[in-house]
Please model this.
Amino acid sequence: MMMVVLPSLALALLCLLPAGADVPVQPDFDTEKFAGMWHVAAIASNCSVFLKMKDGMKSSITIVSFMPEGDLALKLIWPLADKCQKFELLFQRSAQAGHYVAAQEMRDLRVMETDYSGYAIVQEFKRRGEEPHSALQLLTREQDASPQLLQKFKELVPTVGLTQDMVAILPKSDQCTKDIS
Model:
């Protein structure tokens, strides 16, 4: 069973929106301020695997770093029932600051909005396979997301073509904090 769950979970966590959407990007995006550890507090996605698993998911950790040439490296640490699953993704910077692409996976990542010290709203598109997928994520520096931030996130969901039934507010989890390295 676990061998089936892990690839499905990887799909759920990483399958993420159709191309061509006109998604805004944070003006004057600052990579130095954005780098560091974030908690995934909420996700909205139209990915079928995510939708099946969203009720059992917990808050995960995303560590953002930037390469000297400006590319974005993500280390994702997701709590599972009996362990912590780690993934690493690399996105190339595009001509627009705050917009990154992973051509081989046909992924598109945009930092829509951030205050750098408290929250960020990130959208990912995935165009590979039969069905394009979209995900909107609320990242927070602390595990707790304020009711105001959650409301702001929920208000953005329909603006990117997703619906409220696709939203998962992820409960806090300290399960993987020791795996941060």
Q: What stands out?
A: The CA atoms of residues 88 and 132 lie 21 Å apart. The chain has one domain: 2-171. The radius of gyration is 15 Å.
